[in-house]
Amino acid sequence: MSPVIEKNPRIIVALDFPVEALALELVSGLDPKLCRLKVGKEMFTRLGPGFVEKLAAKGFDIFLDLKFHDIPNTVAAACAAAADLGVWMVNVHASGGRKMMETARERLETLSHRPLLIGVTILTSLGQEDIAEVGYTGTPAKNVVRLATLADSAGLDGIVCSPLEAGEVRPNVNDNFLLVTPGVRPASASQDDQKRVMTPLDALNNGADMLVIGRPITAADNPLESLKNIQAEIAGFSK
Ligand code: C5P
Asked: Which of 54, 67, 142, 228 is the catalytic position?
């Protein structure tokens, strides 16, 4: 059974810190009613499942961003292990194929409380020449739409994509299929190393449902104020 998807809070704060203490200091100033948290490969590899459980125990929804990609049975077992940690969302590479995604989804379906399962399409770090070199034909955008459609038909709850791609993906997937977008920068913030960015409100208007935002919040002098400012920026959005 599909969980009821509560989109709010729409902001997922990306925790990309080299040490636990810095992450915990930031999190102690945030509020689970205002944001969710994303834990990626760096922090998970350094700190392990205990770190994720610690954050979940503080009341935050956790997106475990480990981008699983392996044979169906292995990915399904990894997703079940993530569910045991109590995470809210987990992801796999859509290029792992229909069977891999369906098997993961079926394994999670057996649980009373399952995490949302979303797919990674084409990494935004890959350009036209990069994808051609690994055998994809057509533009990155065309491949993103193809893999998003595949993920949707394999029963995933959504995908990660850039906010610029969200507009092309949205008409090709179910209305309740989640588009989770990094590459978001408030109008007033630095772009850091992100090249193709959108403001939070533009991203939502372009079809995004949830926004992954890191440094504009994590590197701010006052992270909670920065989070509240972004919430105020998107407060008028009510789809
Ligand atoms: O600090 P910033 O807002 O750029 O952080 C964005 C987060 O989203 C980081 O954790 C980054 O790894 C992740 N991400 C991204 N672009 C993608 C996929 C993930 O920026 N295409």
From this structure: 67
